[in-house]
Specification:
about 170 residues; alpha+beta; four-stranded antiparallel β-sheet; 6 strands
């Protein structure tokens, strides 16, 4: 199925998590105040798609611009809406900092998307999600070994190979 195209000219938002020239000298708090990347999206928990109806709904989500699905490093699924907070000022400051919601107050730099350690898989298109699930299905049935399986290479000892992990999410 081809899911490309559409009649609306809505710009795709790329999440940006900047690095700073003097970052080594900055405190975690100073970096957070200048970055504000976590204020540019919303992450909503999802369940693993166990039924065709759920999978169809997830495909539908991914047909929309500025929507992604991610699996974090703890195998938790999230629906990501790339949309900046309305209280974010042009300079990146929070206009309601003193009264910001608890979720903002509790956010930890340990989960920061700038560190590239917040998700293991990211799906921007239905085809990416469907391919991932097909690979998992084949790996489970034993048809294909997962990317992290040990493999014998050119008559040498087994080597542990790991798949590349991408970065981003709150």
């Amino acid at each position: 199925m081809d899911y490309s195209g559409g009649i609306f000219n809505v710009e795709e938002i790329e999440l940006v998590f900047p690095k700073f020239n003097n970052e080594a000298k900055m405190t975690e708090s100073e970096i957070c105040m200048k970055c504000h990347g976590c204020c540019t999206y919303v992450a909503v928990p999802l369940e693993y798609p166990r039924s065709k109806d759920t999978l169809d709904t997830y495909v539908w989500y991914l047909l929309h611009r500025n929507v992604e699905i991610e699996i974090d490093n703890y195998n938790k699924w999230f629906l990501i809406f790339k949309t900046p907070c309305d209280k974010l000022l042009p300079n990146g400051a929070c206009s309601i900092y003193e009264t910001r919601p608890e979720i903002c107050r509790d956010y930890s730099a340990d989960n920061c998307s700038r560190t590239a350690k917040d998700h293991a898989h990211q799906f921007k298109q239905p085809s990416e999600l469907l391919q991932y699930l097909e690979q998992k299905k084949k790996a489970k049935s034993g048809t294909v070994k997962p990317a992290s399986a040990s493999r014998r290479i050119a008559g040498k000892k087994s080597v542990r190979m790991t798949g590349k992990k991408s970065a981003l999410r709150k």
